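It is worth pausing here to work through a concrete case rather than discussing structure prediction in the abstract. The textbook approach is simple: state the sequence, then state the predicted structure, then interpret. We follow exactly that order.
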Amino acid sequence: MSRARIMVSYIATGGGIDALRLAVAIAKERDMAIDIVMAMVGSDVTPGMYPKIRGHETIVEKQIGGWLDDARAEVPEGIEVTTSVAVGDSVAEIIIAQARQLGSELITVGSQGGGIFRRVSLGSVVNTLLHSCPVPLAIAPRGYNHPGAVDRATVMFGTRPGATDIIEFGIDGAKRHRFPVRFVSLNINGERPSSVDALGAVEHTAGPALAGQVRELIHDSQATAEVVEASSIDAAVAQLDWKPGEIACLGSSRIAAEGRLFVGATATQIIRHIPVPTVVIPNGYSNTRT
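Step two, the predicted structure:
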């Protein structure tokens, strides 16, 4: 099996560092590589791998090379890393094209400035990606600086059938990348009777086959499952304990086009309230794993 690749959408700001540090936390202690990409719009910069041959760069390229050198220095030894510049007409389009070209399994982006510390404030590029990206997208909250590896992924899903993609994403993460996984069924404002158990919630939303795989992961101490009942999204988020090295995982809206991200109102609320990085996956993720 080829090495999984994480693409960092990098800019020389705090948000870019947040995105890079999230990629490092996900890749750390796992056989994953990191590709750091700077997307440049309407630029005279020559696209391609950096650093370039010294003495042949423009002044702008020297500056970019310095930024990418600093970014590379953030990646610990033992993690494969590349740095490059890509040029085009739209930052979001450049990011998507580069992720496809690199074979990225995940893109990490930073939060826009101006939001509450340790929370997400969505900028225009991230908003565009959240409604069009064909690759799972991980959003780092402002000031993200977890020094270790990601130590748990919380997979969140609602009460209606159709959570196959996100459940399979969690199972895949546990089996291929050794992420301990917590499966959380969100029962907001009495959508489903309170007597439902966690594995029953998985089976109801994703079917008996995937519920059986979750049961095996729980038996092997690789996963847990629980139901959270609350009157609102922020109340549900507050009920859950959150580890410093945790990520949350959400699926796309049911109206999303096949193979594309599209976040609905509930997912947007979760992203804004949650105190840890959030990964959102495209509709039809399970079809891409076959």
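Step three, interpretation. The mean pLDDT is 87. Residues 108 and 133 are 12 Å apart (CA to CA).
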